[in-house]
Amino acid sequence: MNAIIDNSLTILRLMPRAALILALLAAPVLAVPMVRGDMGLTIEAPSLKKKGMGFVLLVSLQRV
């Protein structure tokens, strides 16, 4: 009976440390979605002008 109480007290004594370590490890993972929030600051490259060669290549490369 005494061993069970000793083990319980040891576990209860280690719980705050484990919770602190878990919080420190989880903080960056939980912060990523907040940083990636879309604020309309997306910079996109200008679209390329279409030359129309895709269909010509598709037709010319078909096997007969």
A few lines on this structure:
With 64 residues, the protein is mainly α. The chain contains 2 helices and no strands. The chain has helices at 2-35, 53-60.
Which keywords apply here?
64 residues; mainly alpha; 2 helices; elongated
Could you report the average pLDDT, rounded to the nearest whole number?
80
**Counted beta strands:** 0
Main sheet: strands, sense, barrel: none
Q: Percent range for helical residues?
A: 55-70%
Order of helices and strands: HH
User: How would you classify the helix and strand content by structural class?
Assistant: mainly alpha
Radius of gyration: 30 Å
Characterize the overall form. Answer: elongated
Q: Give the end-to-end Cα distance, rounded to a whole number of Å.
A: 86 Å
Note the beta-strand portion.
under 5%
The number of helical segments is 2
Give unreliable regions as ranges.
none
Give a structural overview.
- The protein is an all-alpha fold.
- It has a domain at 1-36.
- It is 66% helix and 0% strand.
- It contains 2 helices and no strands.
- The chain has helices spanning 2-35, 53-60.
- The model has no long low-confidence stretch (mean pLDDT 80).
